[in-house]
């Protein structure tokens, strides 16, 4: 399966990719139900191009903001953990000469968590 980085920046596509990687849900109906509730908590994903100065040059990148409804999560720590995993995951598909930066917003309290720029890991060729 060849994933396109830009397609991962769509809310529905991101939900589908996360669901595809959820191996525990295949064999455990309760886990599948909880996972689906957490996927449904993803309200929207907004992505915009940004630039970051590096040694006098600007490096292109993308900044994404993920809006999560907190209800299906046991605590805010679960929301933070999801953001941490997604921050690493999305950087795997950004090219090596760019970066990705993620922000997660709790839609009830408006609390935000920001992750630093992660240099892309996907080779150009």
Taking the sheet with the most strands, its summary is: 5 strands, mixed
SSE order in H/E notation?
HHHEEHEEE
Question: How much is the radius of gyration in Å?
Answer: 15 Å
Shape: globular
Unreliable segments of 5+ consecutive residues: none
Q: Write down the overall mean pLDDT.
A: 88
Number of beta-strand segments? 5
N- to C-terminal distance:
17 Å
β-strand percent reads: 25-35%
Describe the overall structure.
- It comes from Escherichia coli.
- With about 120 residues, this protein is an alpha+beta fold.
- The chain has one domain.
- About 35% of the residues lie in helices and about 30% in strands.
- It has helices at about 10-20, 25, 30-40, 75-90; strands spanning about 40-55, 55-70, 100-105, 110-115, 120.
- Strands 1, 2, 3, 4 and 5 form a five-stranded mixed beta sheet that branches.
- A hairpin with a 5-residue loop joins strand 3 and strand 4.
- It is globular, with a radius of gyration of 15 Å.
- The relative contact order is 0.16.
SSE inventory with pairings:
Layout: H1 11-20, H2 24-27, H3 29-40, E1 42-54, E2 57-68, H4 76-92, E3 99-106, E4 112-114, E5 118-119
Relevant terms:
5-stranded mixed β-sheet; globular
Could you give a quick summary of the protein structure above?
34% of the residues lie in helices and 30% in strands. By secondary structure, it is an alpha+beta fold. It is globular and about 50 Å long.
């Amino acid at each position: 399966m060849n994933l396109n980085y830009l397609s991962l920046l769509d809310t529905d596509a991101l939900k589908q990719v996360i669901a595809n990687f959820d191996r525990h849900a295949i064999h455990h109906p309760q886990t599948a139900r909880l996972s689906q509730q957490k996927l449904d908590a993803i309200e929207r994903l907004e992505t915009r191009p940004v630039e970051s100065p590096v040694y006098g040059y600007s490096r292109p990148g993308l900044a994404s903001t993920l809006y999560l409804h907190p209800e299906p999560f046991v605590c805010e720590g679960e929301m933070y953990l999801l953001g941490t995993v997604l921050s690493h995951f999305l950087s795997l598909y950004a090219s090596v000469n760019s970066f990705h930066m993620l922000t997660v917003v709790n839609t009830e309290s408006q609390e935000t968590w920001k992750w630093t720029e992660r240099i892309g890991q996907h080779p150009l060729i």
